[in-house]
Amino acid sequence: MTFSVNSQVHMEAVSKAVSIEIKDKTPPSIEITNLDLKPEIPYIFTNQQLNLVGYVQDNRGLKYFTVNRDTVKVDEEGFFEYRIFLNSGPNNLLLSAVDMNKNTNNQSYKIILEGIASRDYATRSVAPVALNAGNGKYYAIIIGVSNYSDSRIMSLDEPVTDAVRIHNILTTRYTFDKQNSILLKNATRAEIINAFDELSEKLTVEDNLLIFYAGHGHWDEEKNTGYWLPSDADRNRTSNWLRNSTIQGYIESMHTRHTLLIADACFSGGIFKTRKAFNDAPDAIENLYSLKSRKGMTSGMLKEVPDKSVFINYLAKRLESNENKYMSSLELFYQLRTP
C-alpha cells in the first residue's frame, strides 16, 4: 500500500525546517600553553608567582574569560596572560570562558606551593625576564607571511598566528618593549626592508636585536641562493623575493651587541655559512653577554618544513615556561634540540 503526500503541506514543512537555525552548543576552548595542568592531578609549584599563558577561542565570539573570578583580557588572536600569587600549600585555580550564546567552559585545578612561606606580594613589582644580562635595549622584527597575492603560491595557515604568538610572549614575559618590537603580518618586501632600515637608525652597540620569520622560503640550486618569500612575491620573478644575502647584509651592518635570527621557513639555513656557531655556554651570564654575537636558529635547511610548525610550538613553550631571570640564546637552542 502506498500513500501520497500533499505537496503544499510538504513544501510548508520543508520551508519551516530550513528556517530553523542550529543552535550553537559548543563552549569556548581553553588551552594553557606553559603548564601541563590536569584536573585530576595537583600541580606542584615552588615559586610564589605563577604566570598563566594560553589561548581562549570560540567561533561565535567570546563574551568573557575569568581566572579565579577576575576578568582577563584576551586579544584578537585569543592569547592571554595572567599572573597569580600563590599562598603556601594548596591553591584553587578556576578558569571560566563564556561565549556569546552563554555556552560555558569551566576548568578547575589544584596548585600546591611547596617550600615557601606565605608572603604578601600585593604591591610587589616583578621585573620582566631578560634573554641576557646588560643595559642595552631589546628590539625585535617579527614577520609572519601566510597569504600571497600571487595565487600560484600556496597560502599557509600558521605563520601569522605564530608571529603574533612570539610577539606577545616577548613583549609580555621578556624585556622587549612594544614600541621597540615591529610586528609585520603578511608583509611585502618593501615593508620588511623598511622595518630593517627603521631599526638600523635606532640600534646602538649596546642594543640587542631578535629577528623572527615564518613563511615560505625557496632555494635556487643553480644560483646557490636562498630566499624568503614576502606576501607580494611573484612565483616566476625574484624582484620581490628577499635574498638570504640581503638579510645577512643587514645583520652584519647593524652594530648591535647581539643579534639572534629565528627562521621557520624552508631553506633558511643558507643565511649563515655554518650552523656550528653554538658551543658550550660560559659559566657566567656576564661573560656571555660581553661577547658580541650573531646567531641563527632555523627549522629547515634544503627541504620543506610543515605549515603547522612543531619548531614554533616548542620555541613558544620554552619561552613561556622559562622561570629564570636570564635566558641565553645558547640555552634556548639546546632546549629546542632536546624538547
Strand content: 25-35%
User: What share of residues is helical?
Assistant: 10-25%
CATH class group of the largest domain: Alpha Beta
Number of domains as seen in the coordinates: 2
| Strand arrangement across the biggest beta sheet | 2-8-7-4-5
Question: Uncertain segments of ≥5 residues (pLDDT<50)?
Answer: 1-5, 13-19, 116-133, 267-311, 326-330, 332-339
What is the number of helical segments per DSSP (H or I, 4+ residues)? 7
CATH topology of the largest domain: Rossmann fold
Q: Oligomeric state of the chains?
A: single chain
CATH architecture of the largest domain: 3-Layer(aba) Sandwich
Shape: globular
